[in-house]
What we know:
Layout lengths: L2 H11 L11 E5 L11 H12 L8 E6 L14 H8 L2 E6 L8 H14 L1 H4 L2 E8 L1 H6 L13 H15 L9 E6 H4 L5 H6 L3 E4 L15 H15 L5 E6 L15 H15 L5 E3 L108 H16 L1
Helix pairs in contact: 2-3
This protein binds 2-acetamido-2-deoxy-beta-D-glucopyranose (9 copies).
The site of one 2-acetamido-2-deoxy-beta-D-glucopyranose has 3 residues, from loops.
Subcellular location: Secreted, Cell wall
Protein name: Glycoside hydrolase family 17 protein
Family: Belongs to the glycosyl hydrolase 17 family.
Amino acid sequence: MRFATALAVVAATIGSAIAQDPLVLGFNSGATDDTGAAKTQKDFEKEFKTAKNLEGAPGNFSAIRLYSNIQANTADSPIEAFPAAIATNTKLLLGIWASGTDNIDNELKALNAAVKEYGTKFTDLIIGISVGSEDLYRVSEPGIRNKSGVGNSAETIVKFIKTTRERLASTTLKNVPITHVDTWTAWVNTSNKAVIDNIDFLAVNAFPFYEAERDNQISNAGSLLNSALSAIDGVAGGKDVWITETGWAYSGPSFGAGSASVENAATYWKDVGCAIFGKRNVFWYTLRDANPANKVKFAVSDNLSTKPRFDLSCKVKKDLPAPTPLSNNSTTSSGNTTTGTGSSSGSGGNGTYNTPGSSSTPGSSSNPKGNSSRPGVEQSNGAGITSVSVVNSMALALSVVFAVATWAL
Ligand SMILES: *[C@@H]1O[C@H](CO)[C@@H](O)[C@H](O)[C@H]1NC(C)=O
Ligand SMILES: *[C@@H]1O[C@H](CO)[C@@H](O)[C@H](O)[C@H]1NC(C)=O
Ligand SMILES: *[C@@H]1O[C@H](CO)[C@@H](O)[C@H](O)[C@H]1NC(C)=O
Ligand SMILES: *[C@@H]1O[C@H](CO)[C@@H](O)[C@H](O)[C@H]1NC(C)=O
Ligand SMILES: *[C@@H]1O[C@H](CO)[C@@H](O)[C@H](O)[C@H]1NC(C)=O
Ligand SMILES: *[C@@H]1O[C@H](CO)[C@@H](O)[C@H](O)[C@H]1NC(C)=O
Ligand SMILES: *[C@@H]1O[C@H](CO)[C@@H](O)[C@H](O)[C@H]1NC(C)=O
Ligand SMILES: *[C@@H]1O[C@H](CO)[C@@H](O)[C@H](O)[C@H]1NC(C)=O
Ligand SMILES: *[C@@H]1O[C@H](CO)[C@@H](O)[C@H](O)[C@H]1NC(C)=O
């Protein structure tokens, strides 16, 4: 749906519950739980039921985004989230895990097996398929390579998108919209434009919490998210943009001015979540954490109680604050307006002095392995391939510069 249409839907429903149809509200769901154990059908069912029955929720959280079609610890068995979604009438944004591989045969095999087994009870629930998740971010941005797990190139992602369309052409999924999920910094990188050209809508993971090189204190979070969304809308060529991951950590280490606390997580929901629910398709990060390697935790209800960690109601309906402008250099951009000092990636920099793995790099201090912490992106693809991506100050700072340089052309 075009944004203008989305606004019309919202306008028509102001005062009542937030619009769900055709816009969706949902959560992300990893193949494993926060101990790394494979989730069973029963686990998924419980999760999907909790999502729909959260006390005080401002709408119907009846959609789930998956990262893989393959059940964890199997080669190519369909993920047990599928029958769980059927049992709970949960809409699905499917994910094809596409990193560190030259083919997606097992992903498509698992999907086609499920289509055969469950038929339209399954396929009617599918609202989209994402070929890949943050692969471009992991493979492309300087300083992040080899620190954030394997990714994949735009060329390979495009190849996989074409393969997916071909293999689904003779199934009931032939008209399901195809996307790719990535960070806003990857989307605005013109090297990745071929991916935009080959998908039906864009999907973005955006976390002001991790944007340590900008002024990412909680009070500025809505403005940062808005600037990410504006940047992507600017390159989307009129295609719809879904938010596939956003949220604020309730515990764990800080990233720049981004501080993890239950209070801040609640504020982000109220100020940012309530401003985007019903305006775009949104998959919150997250109901339940799924990455034991990530010390930063986001779960709204990790014990799957329908009583959430904080108040989910959206009492005051508001819009996101104006976007923080992006500029050629950080003197004028994000800046560290709070302190006005040149912090790790603050004023005056082109990012190059902020070396990956240095103490100022998010991830290095928070993870003994030196590569923690983007959420949701460590996902087993069922074949034991795991990937952890990192937001790196330097890469993001450079991306901001790059984005503006691109627009100036
Ligand atoms: C929530 O969404 C589900 C799945 O689309 C639907 O079955 C259910 O009726 C919806 N509930 C409400 C209260 O709208
Ligand atoms: C854009 O993507 C290309 C190709 O992956 C990569 O080489 C380049 O570093 C990226 N630029 C930025 C600013 O991330
Ligand atoms: C990662 O490091 C290995 C070995 O140093 C190198 O061969 C490979 O190209 C690197 N990958 C990326 C994405 O930079
Ligand atoms: C990053 O962490 C993962 C698991 O958390 C580990 O397997 C990988 O080797 C680490 N990479 C680097 C470069 O430290
Ligand atoms: C701003 O600078 C202060 C002090 O140098 C630092 O503690 C803080 O993390 C910086 N904030 C950002 C967003 O870089
Ligand atoms: C689950 O978590 C909620 C919120 O954090 C808490 O209030 C509740 O007591 C927990 N329930 C159980 C059974 O642990
Ligand atoms: C960015 O740099 C370009 C070329 O140097 C310039 O034309 C443009 O006005 C600058 N934009 C901003 C916001 O400073
Ligand atoms: C940064 O941007 C400002 C304002 O656009 C400009 O005056 C300054 O020369 C720029 N600095 C660099 C290093 O490009
Ligand atoms: C980035 O800035 C550093 C320090 O100011 C400088 O030494 C380096 O040449 C610059 N790199 C680029 C690519 O502009």
